Amino acid sequence: MNKIIIIYGPTAIGKSDIAVELAKKINAEIISADSMQIYKEIDIGSAKITKEEMQGIRHHLIDFKDVFDTYSVYDFVNDCNKKIDEIQKRNKNIIIVGGTGLYIKALTENYNYGKVNKNEELRKQLNNLEPCELVNILKSYNKEVKQDDLNNKQRLIRYIEIAKSGTIQTKKDFDNRFMLFGLYQDREKLYNKINKRVDLMVENGLLNEAQNLLKKVNPNNQCLKAIGYKELLPYFNGEKDLISCLDILKKRTRNYAKRQLTFFNQFKNIIKINVETKQQAVMDILKNIEEENE
């Protein structure tokens, strides 16, 4: 099989399970495209796949960064391409799976970030500024800022880093190395799964994990930008009861899933797969792969 398979979809839809089942059928290894599962210690809140759930399938780009580390889209594209090369040398097929849409978009559309290296001194200076100040700096370089980036300090700092280098970000058409599948299902069914998963996370120890992380790491740190931790801070501070915080967590997770589904429209060449069951989704993906290979 020549194509690299990508499985994208909203949180809680079952991407990891589907990827593992598919990997067993096509002799593949899996590369994660999840911006939070890269971090050690962020397990329950990120719904990180367990060793048991991997079922012997080799996974990459999971659990390899410290919680104090920063990690960019540029870093992901570089690391992912290195893993692709490594896996192909082992004559294995590749499945990339995750819900971080920008990672997948940058990878599949060959975003060129100018190969601008990190400037730690500049980052230290910029990190003391508020997002609105960073936006103004970018505007001084005649750079437009998307609505979704207005409060994302890490991304704004990276854009400034690139702008100061004088290198222009460019992108090409969809990279034909990839075959991209987008998972979706009935919204009510998906939202019910999200609500149940939050309850299960609490049963599995989310409160202890979140409390330990929030004691160790500033809530504004990159690793805690994920939904699932800062929503519990008012409970730990005695400002709100647990039920209220969990309701907020469920709502924000549902809203995040909605944004992930909306992101579908930004992808070129996406093949949409309706997830009625895991088995049916795997069969539908296999059918498309077989048709592509004919």
Structure description:
There is one protein chain. The chain is an alpha/beta fold and 294 residues long. Among the domains are: 114-170; 187-258, Crystal structure of tRNA isopentenylpyrophosphate transferase (bh2366) domain (Helix Hairpins), CATH 1.10.287. The protein has 12 helices and 6 strands. It has helices at 15-26, 51-54, 73-89, 101-108, 120-126, 131-140, 153-165, 187-203, 206-216, 233-236, 242-263, 278-293; strands at 4-8, 28-32, 59-60, 93-98, 178-184, 270-274. Helix 2 links the parallel strand 2 and strand 3 (59-60). The longest helix is centred in the C-terminal third of the chain and has 22 residues, at 242-263. The protein starts with a strand and ends with a helix.
List keywords for this structure.
globular, Helix Hairpins, alpha/beta, 48% helix, 10% strand, 294 residues, 6 strands, 6-stranded parallel beta sheet
- Give the CATH H-level superfamily of the domain at 187-258: Crystal structure of tRNA isopentenylpyrophosphate transferase (bh2366) domain
Tell me how many strands there are.
6
User: Strand arrangement, largest sheet?
Assistant: 3-2-4-1-5-6
- N- and C-termini, Cα separation: 11 Å
Order of helices and strands: EHEHEHEHHHHEHHHHEH
Structural Rg: 20 Å
| CATH architecture assignment of the domain at 187-258 | Orthogonal Bundle
Number of separate helices: 12
CATH first level of the domain at 187-258? Mainly Alpha
Helix content: 40-55%
Low-confidence segments: none
Fraction of residues in β-strands: 5-15%
